[in-house]
Every structure is written in structure tokens, then in C-alpha cells.
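#lab-general

N.A. 3:47 PM
ok so I finally got the sequence cleaned up, no stray characters, all 249 residues accounted for. can someone with queue access submit it? mine expired

B.Y. 3:52 PM
send it over

N.A. 3:53 PM
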Amino acid sequence: MRRCFTALCGATPLMTANCLTTTNCEGKKASSTQSWKRNLLFQAPSGFWSDRDWYDLQMARRLPLTMDILREMVFALPPLRDGSVVCDLGSGSGRCAVAIAEAYPEACFVLVDMDVERGERAMKRVRAAGVDAVQFQQMTISPDSLRDYDSFDCVTAMQSVRHVVAAPAHYAEKGAVSNANIHEGYREMFKAVLQTLKPGGHFFLGDHTTHGHPGVFEHLELLKEAGFIDIDVAWREKDWFVVGARKPA
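B.Y. 4:20 PM
back already:
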């Protein structure tokens, strides 16, 4: 994987089996035929969360603090020097990566997600923000799938670790697997993220507390157990938060 990042920040575009470099509109599935009434907030199940267009359209409406948490994560980042490699775990359609790219256009980006269609959209958006050094890695995120990575300067996870540990229905349909012990799942994920970083590299996690998952303080304790230092809360409002941490140099 290390050669992937060397090529990413150089002049020659990278092409590997797992790196998405082109888009193709052929073979896309037809739109959902489920009733529009899934849009009613008071009627379960509510929403079409597996649909990338609906997801992008409704995110800020359904989760009003989404833009605040994204803004605060970008403010929390240390300066990303030219050639810094940023990995966005659970990159979705690219909201987080685009926000970082607009702030630090000389950084290089590795977008990781299980959804190819959202990966295509994320690639387009980051490139539209003026960053060519970007690639997409399709994978079901897990501690095992991250073992081959060890050279990121920064890892971001915007509302993704929670879904990795306990996959909601729209991800489970695509092959995501939930961890039977949620707290242990977080512990293993944080250890895996630590080993993907270069010495001195940073990790930023943005999410909201939810039933059965660690609270903000528990996140800090689990990060400490995993081996991170310089752990703190960068921002918090209601049940939403951004925490940051660093791998020892």
C-alpha cells in the first residue's frame, strides 16, 4: 500500500486493482420503488439512507448539526503540509474530504468506503475542489482490512466508526458486519487506526453519542488504551462531538 501513496503525491496517476480512477454510468441500478412515505419523519422505517442522492439531500435536514461538526473537525486539524497523506475512513460521498481539501489543497487524500458509487462521487467532488492527488479504496472497513496501511499523516472518521462497529441496516445489506461487543469493537478499531499512522500522526473522530455506544469520555479513555496521546475534545454541542488524538512520535 505504501507505493500507492508515493505515486499519489507524485506526477503519475496511480492505477491499482483497488484504486478507483475512472467513473462509469453503465450498469447502475434503477431507483428505489419503495413508497415516498419513508420520508415521513414520524413513521418508521424513516428514510432512504442507502440511496446516495437522498443521503446527500437529506443529511443536513435530518441531522442539523452535521455541518457544524464538519466545520469544527476542519478547524481542529493541524496544518497539513504539502504532500501530507490524509485518510478519510468511511468517506461516503466526500463531504469531509472536500472540506479538508478546500482548507489544505496541497494534501493528498485516500478515501476509504465500502460503497463504490459514493466513492465515485467523492472522487469527483475532491477533484472539483482542485485536488488531483486523491484515490478511492473500496473495502469493508475493519481492523483486519486496515492492517496493510502504515503511512498516513492524518486519519479522519466522520460518523463512521460507530457504523463500522455496529452496522445499520443499510450498510449490513452491503456486507458490513457488526461487532457483538460494541466497546471491544471500538477498542480494536482505535488500535487499528493507530497502526495506520506515521509516528506523530493525528486521528480525528466526529460523531454523536447514541444508546449502547461509548460516550465522549469513554471515547477518550478507549483512545488512551489504544496508545494515543494528546487526546482531547475539540468541540461539543448537545450529543455531537469532535475528539482529536496523536500517535507518539
